[in-house]
Amino acid sequence: MPIAVVGPLSADAYVAAASGRGDTQSISVPPDATLQALSNETYTAVSGEELRAAANMRTAATFINDGNSPIQWPFPVGVPLTDRYGPREAPCGGCSTFHQGLDMTPGEGTPIDAIAAGTVIAAEESDSGFGVSVQVEHVVAGRKYVSLYAHMQFGSLEVTEGDIIAVGQKIGEVGNTGQSTGPHLHLEIWEDGTDPIDPYAWLTEMVG
């Protein structure tokens, strides 16, 4: 589309424009203005999906929790989801190239809730691997599942091995311990107690 190329504003015109004085609903184009075509050769439009792909970001829409459901998300409201289950480029030395969980980033210190009623089968204070972490065994529709909550803050654990806990019960707080690149909850769900499955897909189906 052609555009008018106009010389620089006079001092009086510049002051009037900057101060809001004058007629702001019209523009006066001098008779010696020239027309030039606006070229799109020097720029391109890039979608959000293309930007995320170029940066190797695998984000997803967040979630809606149901506080009355026997299966719930580990946070009462939706939070950013920063890495999904599946193949990926390892984000750090020693990190996996197949992500077996879901990374959630509500902010350091945010309380983490159990996704279902169950029994705590492991609770560890560590600064390697999963860091400060908890494993809870559940029975859902007659089938055994284990949920793993990793990289929590030191000193934030509120459960110990052998505890019987309820859905929505606080188990710890978001941290940055172990093999972690920033404060987040790494959540895994193991079907039959041993086989990692996609937590996002499973929770989306089961909650509510």
From TrEMBL:
GO terms for molecular function: metalloendopeptidase activity. It comes from the Bacteria. Residues 98-199 form the M23ase beta-sheet core domain. It holds the Pfam family Peptidase_M23. This is M23ase beta-sheet core domain-containing protein. It comes from Agromyces aureus.
